[in-house]
Design brief:
By secondary structure, the protein is of the alpha/beta class. 44% of the residues lie in helices and 20% in strands. Helix 1 runs parallel beside helix 9 and helix 4 runs antiparallel to helix 5. GO terms for molecular function: ATP binding; ATP hydrolysis activity; GTP binding; metal ion binding; ribosomal large subunit binding.
Length: 364
Amino acid sequence: MKLGIVGLPNVGKSTLFNAITKAGAESANYPFCTIEPNVGVVSVPDERLNVLHEMYNSKKTVQTAIEFYDIAGLVKGASKGEGLGNQFLSHIREVASIIHVVRCFEDENVVHVDGEIGPLKDIETINLELIFSDEEIIERRITKTRKALKGNKKLQGELEILEKIKTTLEEGISVRAMDLTEDEWNFVKTLQLLSAKPIIYCANVSEDDLVENNMENKYVKEVRAFAKTENAEVVVISAKIEQEIAELEDEERDAFLEELGLKESGLDKLIKSSYHLLDLISFLTAGPEEVRAWTIKRGTKAPQAAGKIHSDIERGFIRAETIAFEDLKDHGSMAAAKEKGLVRLEGKDYVVQDGDVILFRFNV
């Protein structure tokens, strides 16, 4: 899973990226510090793997992973090539979801590219650049579809959706905010529009605002209100605190979070939001050699889940020996769970559930 971190210059974007990936991307108090997207791979923590590791005494544990792309700061006019615009927009096209870091803190020592703090204005600046880029794509597609329509009347439906999208974009509204049917969304996905990508607004607040936590500042409230119009997620973090967390060992990290009165890190919140936004779940495989988590879309059937492991397993799928993680944990071993009749044999139509522990039977 690839997530692209975007934002105006100096909003804390690269600071956050450095902290959550420990990748050491350059971070400086001036625009265009990041030119090529830095890439950091982060393991997704899953306590269930620790339980299975102990149960099977496995040689290794493999967590699923997320790739974070630190995409350079966008500025007004990026869709027309301002700054390093077109290059950045092409990087956004490659990711599954956008994490838009929005500055929700005041600090006179960190300049704002527009001279004043205004999260809604910042959001609008970047969203409009994505919208302008999409408008060009839609214009070309409409022209092409109108020509093809003369010989294929079945394209009338597509043309109507394209014109609906065009009207929405002209109103300055992102495609992700549109109310479309499932079939219409499936068509939209083929267009690879930037403003259609799922988005998490990451409100970067000061250390004090995050720790006090009982009342969100006015900037965060503005971001939350706007996010509702797009069915977007909002995660409140402090990039500075994430930076401090990144320098600690696991045990120190837990103690530090507890001391601050925080239940989880910003990275943990981002991962949870990403899974929720993209409708993802994990199933698990376990044995003496390894225990492992695999990420799939919710609603995936057993053969396609098997294909995440290897295409041969999907092709030769026979059945899936399945148990819910909680049942396995409660009984302490697969043998004990089998005695209680908790292990099921599922066929090709079985929809895999989050936390299923599966052994795939196949023949190639």
